[in-house]
What does this fold into?
Amino acid sequence: MLTRLSSSTNVVDLKVTALGNFVRNRRKELCLTQVALALRMAVDDAYVSAVETGRRVPDGTSFLEALGRALELDEDGVRQLANASRRSQRYLRLPEELSERKHQLISALVEDVRLSEMDLETIASVHCAIARNRSMAAAAATPNVEGGSM
It folds into this structure.
């Protein structure tokens, strides 16, 4: 999601992430300021602000654990926090053994900012059909042994 904030002197674009939304919503549920949350975590309040606005997307386990404690999350909340963090990561790590063609295809998909929801559904459907056909072919190739031991 792209949020546009404007004032009389300047315009700033901020990319709000799933993690930023999660943290902001939970912080507000607890009636905490960014400063109060930062104090609970022993981090700078500017860092909390950067996480909420999407300028920083920490992926360290220790940070997420401290954040979970500071936000008083139960087990389900911790899972939601981890999921939001995973969805907010900016980098896609591809295996080194990936073929050049697969790398090109994945890069093209990532870089195509014009992909619509319908486009994504079409791509997902095609991939699902390929996986289904592959499974059916593997099942057909497996010999069906009838009978048993004598």
Notes: Confidence is low (pLDDT under 50) at residues 1-14. The two ends are 66 Å apart (CA to CA). The longest helix spans residues 117-141. DSSP finds seven helices and two strands in the chain.
